[in-house]
Amino acid sequence: MASTKVKEPVCVTGANGFIGSWVIGTLLEAGYTTIHASIFPGSDASHLFNLQASANPNSTLRIFEVNVTDGEAVARAVEGCKGVFHIASPCTLEDPIDPQKELVEPAVKGTLNVLEAAKKLGVRRVVLTSSISALVPNPGWPSDKPFDESSWTDLEYCKSRKKWYPVSKTLAEKAAWEFEKKHGLDVVSILPATCLGPLLQPNLNASCAVLQQLLQGSKDSQEYHWLGAVHVKDIAKAQVLLFESPTASGRYLCTNGIYQFADFADEVSKIYPEFPVHRFVGETQHHLVACKDAAKRLIDLGLIFTPLEVAIRDTVESLRSKGFLKK
Ligand SMILES: NC(=O)c1ccc[n+]([C@@H]2O[C@H](COP(=O)([O-])OP(=O)(O)OC[C@H]3O[C@@H](n4cnc5c(N)ncnc54)[C@H](OP(=O)(O)O)[C@@H]3O)[C@@H](O)[C@H]2O)c1
């Protein structure tokens, strides 16, 4: 008789955010039956139960209210799990008043709390959601070579320009690799580009707001925060793939290609000529070398990326249906 492999219990932090909600949905569809959903205390997780009801009503979805800077609360959510998807981290492109407190501390301390709990409680693998913001901006990178996973964001460059989000993601991922080296925990990191697609959560997240603002005439060139874009369902599938692939290790760039934000704006404008999309002249990202199969490591593991046009259309449809975009 063929054996059905039982999926291990897993914990997802940031479970009710944009990416977290998709990871929950993807895990449920993949047959995971015990999921610990860790959410920021007091935040709304009701949409996760709708996902559960449609994907697998017999599964167990337990909600844990956890500020990831609180190590004991993190440990309670991780206990009993064999895998952790650490997604919670402040994701905003707004300028913080206190960068250390608002961005850096939750990113770094949150990551270390998750890794410490995972090590102590016998977790098999942690999939860490890092970002292309831990890879770029890196002005020292050769100007004729497409970026790959060996690039790290230049911290001093970002600090001098007060770009605190890349600082927070870079310090968090570096801390994770140091922990892995010292304590021998199995960690794999995923570095998504600007993430688009349908919003499962009620609020508007930062990356879908980038497209919303572009459609409304914003001239922001995303100079320091852009490498390409990716559909949120591809990120969620990649996360599960990285957890389940025995050979997965190290960093995985997750983007459907590398190209200028100017090219993205052109594509959006072509699909939606009725919107006042700004047309950028020249390079929006200095010396960014275009590359179609930039996420070669994930492609080699079997991930097939959704076309950019689908990601754009899915986002716009969702923004419209939720009232975040008029017309
Ligand atoms: N979206 C992108 O384009 C993109 C690209 C690359 C990487 N990422 C990374 O992906 C992850 C998820 O981002 P997202 O796009 O899904 O944004 P999101 O919807 O804002 O999700 C972030 C989640 O983290 C939670 N969180 C923040 N600080 C926390 C804390 N101290 N304790 C507990 N929870 C906390 C937030 O809770 P509240 O909202 O309730 O505060 C939210 O649920 C982040 O690590 C982000 O850096 C995102």
From TrEMBL:
State if NADP is listed as a keyword. yes
SUPFAM superfamilies per UniProt: NAD(P)-binding Rossmann-fold domains
InterPro entries hit by this protein: Epimerase_deHydtase, NAD(P)-bd_dom_sf, NAD(P)_dehydrat-like
Q: In the UniProt record, what gene is named as encoding this protein?
A: LOC111477206
Q: Which GO terms describe its molecular function?
A: oxidoreductase activity, acting on the CH-OH group of donors, NAD or NADP as acceptor
- Cite the source lineage: Eukaryota, Viridiplantae, Streptophyta, Embryophyta, Tracheophyta
Record the organism: Cucurbita maxima (Pumpkin)
Quote the Pfam families the UniProt record gives: Epimerase
Q: Mind telling me what this protein is named? A: Tetraketide alpha-pyrone reductase 1
Q: Where is the NAD-dependent epimerase/dehydratase domain?
A: 10-248
Please provide the record's keywords in A-Z order. NADP, Oxidoreductase
CDD domains reported in the protein's UniProt record? FR_SDR_e
